Amino acid sequence: MKSYRGKIFFLCFFLITLCLFLFLNIVIGPLIISFVAAYLINPLFEFLENKGIKRSFISFATLIILTVLSLLAIWIFLPILFEQLQGLIKLLPGFKTYLEGSLFPKIQGLIAELTGQKSYNVIHLYDLLPINVEKVSETLISRIGASTRFIASILIMVIFTPFFSYFLMRDFNKIHNKIFELVPIDIKPVFIEFIEEVDKKLRSVLRGQSIVILTLCVLYPSALLIAGLPTAIAVGVLTGCARLVPYMDILVGSFLCFFVLVTNSADGHLILTVSLAFLTVQCLDGLFITPRIMGRFSGLHPSLVILSVLCFGDWFGFYGILLAVPLAAVGKVSFTMIIKSYKESQFYKNGNNG
Fold it and tell me: What is residue 54's three-state secondary structure?
C-alpha cells in the first residue's frame, strides 16, 4: 500500500510540475532566473540569518545590488554587444559571396577530381536553400528592435525578474517547508532522501556550470580582442554561452571565427593570431578551468548533458535548453534511486535466489 501511494504521489508531483511549466510559459523565463538565483544564494542567506540579520533586509539589499549591476551592464556592455551582433549579421552577404566564389568551386573541383563527374555543379546546392541572405540580414537587424513579441518578452523579463527574485529569496525556506508539509507522512523519508540527493547534485552542477560559462565569457572576448578579431566581444560572448552544451563552444567559436575572418578577407597574420588565441583559451579550459571547477563540483557526463539538451530543447524550445542540465541532474538522481529500490525489492532478490 505504501509503495502504491508513493508512486501515485510522485506521479502527481511530476504532472503538477509539468502543468505549471506549460501554463506559466509567459513568465517562465523570469521564474527560472529568479529561482536559480534564490536557490544558489540561499546558503549565504542562511549564514547571514544565523548572524542575526533579517532575511527580508538581506533579500532587499541583494536585489538592489543585483539591479545596480544589471543596469550598469545594460548601460555599458549591451550597446557594444548589440552593435557587434548587428555587425555579424551584416557580414552574411559577404559570407554568401565567399561560398559561391571560393569555397563551392574548390569543393566542385575536389568532387570532380575524385569522381570524374566534371558536370556536377556544387553551387546549385546553394540554390536549394530557401534563404535570401541579403533579405535575412536586413530582416534580422530590423526585427530585433521592432518585434512586438521580442519587446514584450524583454519587458516581462525586466519587470518580473526583480519582483520574483525578491519574494523567492525572502520566502525560499517557507516555500520549501510548505511543500514538505504536503507530503504524506509514510513516504516523507523517501521524499526527503530524494530531495536531498537532487539538491546536492543540482547545486554542484549549477555552480560548476555557471562558473565555467562566466569564466569563458570573459576569456574568449578578451583573447579574441587582443588577437584583433572584428566583433570580438560578440563572438566571444556567444562562444562562451554556447558552453551550456558541452563542447558546443568549440563548434560555435570555430564557425564564428571562420565566418568573420573570411568575410573580412583576413590576412595570414590575423588568421594565425585568432587561431592561437582560440587554442589558448581551449588549452586553459581543458587543462585548468574545467578539471579544477567540475572536479570540485561533481558534474554530469557530457553525453548525458548533450542528450538532455537535444531532447528538452525539442520538447520545450529555448527554456528546455536552459533547464536541460538541471533536469538531467534530477533524472540521474531519480534513476539511481529507482535502481537502488529495485535491487532492494523482493522481485529482484527472489529472482536471484531462484
Answer: coil
Residue with cell 542540465: 325
Task: Please report, in angstroms and rounded to a whole number, the separation of the first and last CA atoms in the chain.
Answer: 26
pLDDT (tens digit per residue) in 20-76: 666 666 677 777 778 888 887 888 888 888 888 888 888 888 888 877 877 777 777
- Residues with Cβ within 8 Å of 232's Cβ and at least 6 positions away in sequence, in order, are 84, 221, 224, 225
> Any idea where the domains of the chain sit in the sequence?
26-182, 187-342
* pTM exceeding 0.70: no
Residues 77-106: tens digit of each pLDDT: 767 767 776 777 776 666 666 666 666 666
Long-range contacts of 273-277 (CB under 8 A, 24+ apart): 273/227, 273/228, 274/224, 274/227, 274/228, 274/229, 276/227, 277/223, 277/224, 277/226, 277/227, 277/229
- The interaxial angle of helices 248-263 and 188-227, nearest 10 deg, is 20
For residue 288, the Cα-to-chain-centroid distance in whole angstroms is 21
